[in-house]
Amino acid sequence: MSQALYESKLTSLPLLGRGKVRENYAVGDDRILMVASDRLSAFDVIMGEPIPGKGALLTKMALFWFDKLQGVVPNHLTGEDPLAVLEPLEREQVRDRAMLVKRLKPLPIEAVVRGYLAGSGWAEYQKTQSVCGVALPAGLRNADKLPAPIFTPATKAEMGDHDENITFDQAAKIIGADLATRVRDISIELYQRAADFALTKGIIIADTKFEFGLDADGTLTLMDEVLTPDSSRYWPVESYAPGSNPPSYDKQFVRDWLESVRIDGQPWPKKAPAPALPPEVIARTVQKYEEALQRLTA
Questions:
Q1: Which Pfam family, any one of them, does this sequence belong to (predicted)?
Q2: d(CA 69, CA 53)
Q3: CA R_g for the chain
């Protein structure tokens, strides 16, 4: 296993903030050094143990997809070497896990696209026959493919809180109808292109989450990470079977373990602190991330 990085500690740049996985450092007024740590969050709780090499794998996969999806919408990459903005002694710490990106004004919604019924979408469908206000056919099963991909936005939660699914109309009230329409149409196009490509590599992308921002000129720009197993549900084609949760390449392995763990005879309440991840769960999770990247880029 590679050396794990739970938290970056750079002193040559001002820290803007730490998220669940990433740390952002200011590079002047117009750029950000985005560092992907090896932290993992599940059920919106950050685990106490890192997943060695995860940040580098996520960065490599995000760069792969940014390149693959060029032409649909501008992205936040500057094209510059992220290590060039650091002092020489700090470069090794973030090598292969940093991106130098444009500083944008983030939109306050998450652009979620679902091609299959899973997760919170499946839970909502069972109650209402719809997801985020999008009516769906009757009789669908867990993990069924939808007739067409649907846009199901969410509000961005503070760290430790859960994102809240909202309707398109609610998203339009937050960011304006014209912008919401563009975000929806671009998100569906990005998802469809990625899903079609992934299928040729034996991977189903069941759903994914995009984030967008506006640059100084108001140009809509794809930002943050894109189409990684942290922001998407990846299923291997060969073990996909509707009617239950298919095995996945994302952090579902950790989620399943957390669902099964008992503390003083009780299920973990999905609040911090998280139970310590056993070495075998960490190793299996690393393996899943590596396998997804190898399969996609082979």
A1: SAICAR_synt
A2: 25
A3: 19
Q: How many Cβ atoms sit within 10 Å of the Cβ of residue 42?
A: 20
CA–CA gap between residue 259 and residue 244 (Å, rounded): 16
DSSP strand E in 20-125: where?
A: 22-27, 31-36, 41-42, 45-46, 98-102, 105-106, 109-116
Query: Coil, strand, or helix at residue 243?
Result: coil
Give how far Cα 82 sits from Cα of 55, 63, 79, 99, Å.
15, 13, 9, 6
* Residue of 217, 280, 265, 241 whose CA lies nearest to 51: 280
- Chain segment 84-111, per-residue pLDDT in tens: 999 999 999 999 999 999 999 999 999 9
Do residues 164 and 157 touch, judged by C-beta distance below 8 A?
yes
**Given the structure tokens 């769906």, which residue do they identify?**
136
Whether the per-residue pLDDT at 215 is higher than 70: the answer is yes
Are 190 and 72 spatial neighbours (Cβ–Cβ below 8 Å)?
A: yes
What is the per-residue pLDDT across 35-66, written as a single tens digit (0 to 9) for each?
999 999 988 899 999 999 999 999 999 999 99
Q: What is the pLDDT of residue 76?
A: 98
- Rounded Cα distance, 263 and 296, in Å: 38
